[in-house]
Amino acid sequence: MDGSREYSKSIPDEEIIQDAYALFKEIQDYEAVTRREMRDDVQFENGKVWNESDVLARQQDDMPSLNVPRMDQFLNHIRNGFRQSKPAIKVSAKGADSEEVEEKRIKYAERRQGLTRAIQYASSAVDAYQEIFDEASTKSGRGFIHITTQYVSDNSFDQEIVVDNIDDPFRVYMDRGRSKRDYRDAKYGFILSDMPREVFKAKYPDASDAHWFAEGDGKWIGKDDVTVAQFYCTWVKKRTLFMLEDGRRGYTDELDELTDGEKELVRSQIVKTREVREPYIMWYKLTTAQILDRRHIPGRWIPIVAMVGTEQEVDGVCNIYSMVRKLKDSAMLYNYAASQEAKRLSLSPKVPFIAAEGQIAGLEKEWAEANISNKPVLPYKPVTVGQHLAPPPQRQPPIGIDAGLINAKQGYLDDMRSIASIDMPSLGMMGPERSGIALKELKRGADIANLHYLDNMRITITHVGRIIQDWLPVYYDTDRIVKILGEEMDEKELRINAPDEDGEDVLLGDGEFDVTVTMGQSHDTKRQESMEFMLELIRAAPQVTPLIYDLLVKNMDSPGAQEISERLKRTIPPEILEEKGGEKQMQMQLQQAVQRLQQDEQIIQVLTAKLEEAMKELEDNGKEIAKDIEVARINQEGKIAVEHIKATAQQAQDTRRIAADYWKSFQESRNSTRSE
C-alpha cells in the first residue's frame, strides 16, 4: 500500500482497512499542528482578523474592532501574477534508435499534444490551476488537483480524462514521498467527502453507515451524513522482463495472448530475463467498516497532485504556509492602529463652539441645529463679563489625530509591502522612480521575490501532464473520434486507433514522452509585444516595412484587421512570408542573387577579353583612327556594361541584406516569444 508490498486479490478487506487507517492516522498526527495554523490563516484571509475574546473585551470598553483589508492588495498581486501567465503542457518524443521510429514518435507526440490541450480545455483545467495556486500561495498554503475519468455520454463505454481541483484541501491527507516534501513521489493519499445518509443507503443497502471519521479534521459530522474516504495506494506487482535477440523487450505474462506456437517461437529467441517490481495503483472507496468499491488505476502515480506554497520541517514538525502567514502580524497591527484612530475620531465633539454664558439663551434650538442644517446666520446675545463685552461664540478646531497613529499605520503598511516584496510601482502607484528602466527593474524584482510560487505551480502542472500521458493509451485505446486543439486553440477532429487515408494507423503510442511546462504571458500580451517589436524594427530599418506590414496589421486589435492583413499578404513575395519552407525559399533567393553576381562577373571578363582583342587587332593593322574610334566605342560599351552590372550587383546585394536582416530579426523575435 505504501509502495513496498506486493498486490494480491487474496488479502482480506479487514486487513486493507486496518492498514489504510494506520497510514491515515500517521499523516493526521504528523500534520496536526500545521493544519490548525493553516486553518487559522484561511480564516484570517477571509476576514476573521480578531480573536473572539479580544472582540468581546473591546466591546465592553466600547472600542471598535475594525478590519481594513490592506493585505488584500498584496495577495491579489500574487494571484493575478498567475492569471497573467499562460501555462502550457508541452509533449515531446524521446530519441529512438532509428530515424523511422523517431518519426513515428514525433507524430505520436503531436497527437498527444493536441489531445492534452483538448482535455485541459474541456475540463476547465486553467480554472482548476488558478484555484489551487490561490490556495497554496495566498490562503492555506496547499492545494490539490484530482485527475479522474468520466464516460463521454450516457450511452457510451468510451471514457475521457478530467482535470479538476479539490475544493476543500483540508479534506485531503496525502503522503509526501521519500523526501517528505516531494508529493510527486507520493505512494498513497485520501480524499474525504460526506454523502447524505439516504443516498448512502440507496447506493450501498447492505453496508454499515459507519463514518470514516477524522478527529481534528475541523469538519462537523452531521447525523444525516456519512463520511467516506477515497483511498489511492501503491502496491507492487512482480513481472518477468525479457529481451529477444533483435533487442525487442516484453513481459512473460503478455505471452498468454499468443498461440502455443507463437509462444514457443518467442521463448526460443529470449536472450535475457530479469524480475521487476512495477507500481500497481489501486483505488478504494471505504469506511471504517467495509470497502464499498475498488478498481485498478493505470500508470505509475496516484492521481492526486499537490501544489505547496512553502513547506518546512523543523525538528520533525511539519510547517506549511502561504504569504498570509507572513503578513498576519503586520495586518493585525494595522487594524489595531486603525481601530484606535476610529476611537479617537468618535470622541471628537460634533459642534466645537465656545460661547459665554447667556449668549445663546433662548436660541438653543438654532444652535442645536447648526450642525445639521445650513443656516445663513446664527444669532447670539451680546453679554458683558466683568464690565467688558464678551466676544461672539467661536468655533474651535476639531481634535487632531495623533501623528503617532498615522505614522504607525504607514509603518505597518510599509512592513507588509516589504514582506511581500511588492513596491508601489508594482501595485500601480507611482513612486520616486520615474524612468521606465527603474520601474521595470522594480517590477522584475517583485516578480523574482515571489517566483517560487509560479515555479511550484510549474512543477505541479508538469506532474499533471505526466499522469495524463500515462493514461492516454489506456483510456483512448478504441476506434473513436476525439477533439484536438492546436497552438492557436483551433479545434479539429481526429479519428484514432484506425487507418488514415494513406492506410497508416493513427495511434498515440505507448512509449515514454518528455513533459515540460512553459509559463508565458497571455495571448493578447504577446500580440501587443509583437506589434511593439515590429514598430521598433520599422523605426530602425524603414526598408523592411513592405516585408512585414501584413504581420503588423494582423496584430492590431481592430475590426477588419485580419481581412486587411490577408489582402496585404498577397502583395508580399512568397519567399518572404512565414510559411512552411519559408527558410528554404529565403536561402534559394540569396543563392540566386549570388549566381546573378557571378554571371555579371563573367560578362565583365568576356567584354574585357574582347576589348583586348580589338586593341591588338587595331595595333596590328596600323589603323590609328579606326583604332581610336573602335577603342572609344568599346570603352563606352564597357562603361555602360560595367555601370549596368554595378547597379544590378548593388540591387542584388541590397535585396540580400534586407532579406537577411529581416530573417535574423524574425528568428530572434520567434526565439524570444518561445522563451517567454
Quick gist of this model?
With 676 residues, the chain is an alpha+beta fold.
Architecture blueprint of SSEs:
Blueprint (H helix, E strand, L loop, with lengths): L1 E5 L6 H18 L1 H14 L6 H9 L10 H14 E9 L5 H24 L2 H14 L3 E10 L7 E7 L6 E3 L13 E9 H7 L21 E20 L4 E3 L8 H9 L1 E17 L4 E7 L6 E5 L1 E5 L2 E5 L1 H24 L6 E2 L9 H5 L15 E2 L2 E2 L4 E2 L7 H18 L15 H14 L1 H25 L4 E6 L5 E6 L16 E9 L1 H18 L4 H10 L6 H9 L12 H40 L2 H52 L1
Parallel strand pairs: 1-7
Antiparallel strand pairs: 2-20, 3-4, 3-11, 5-6, 6-7, 7-8, 7-9, 9-10, 12-13, 14-17, 15-16, 18-19
Helix pairs in contact: 4-6, 6-13, 9-11, 14-15, 15-16, 17-18
Summarize the biggest pleated sheet.
7 strands, mixed
Count the beta strands.
20
Overall pLDDT metric: 80
Taking the alpha carbons of the first and last residues, their distance comes to 41 Å
3D shape: flat
Helicity level:
40-55%
User: In percent, how much strand structure appears in the residues?
Assistant: 15-25%
Low-confidence stretches: 433-439, 579-583
Tally the helices. Answer: 18
Question: Rounded to an integer, what's the Rg over CA atoms?
Answer: 39 Å
Helix/strand/pairing category: alpha+beta
Feature tags:
676 residues, flat, seven-stranded mixed sheet, single chain
Report on the architecture of this protein:
- The protein is α+β, with helices and mostly antiparallel strands and 676 residues long.
- Among the domains are: 31-186 and 301-346 and 410-518, no CATH class; 525-675.
- It contains 18 helices and 20 strands.
- The chain has helices at 13-30, 32-45, 52-60, 71-84, 99-122, 125-138, 197-203, 260-268, 323-346, 364-368, 403-420, 436-449, 451-475, 523-540, 545-554, 561-569, 582-621, 624-675, and strands at residues 2-6, 85-93, 142-151, 159-165, 172-174, 188-196, 225-244, 249-251, 270-286, 291-297, 304-308, 310-314, 317-321, 353-354, 384-385, 388-389, 394-395, 480-485, 491-496, 513-521.
- The strands form seven sheets. Strands 1, 5, 6, 7, 8, 9 and 10 form a seven-stranded mixed sheet that branches. The chain has a three-stranded antiparallel sheet with strand order 4-3-11.
- The chain is flat.
- 22% of the residues are buried.
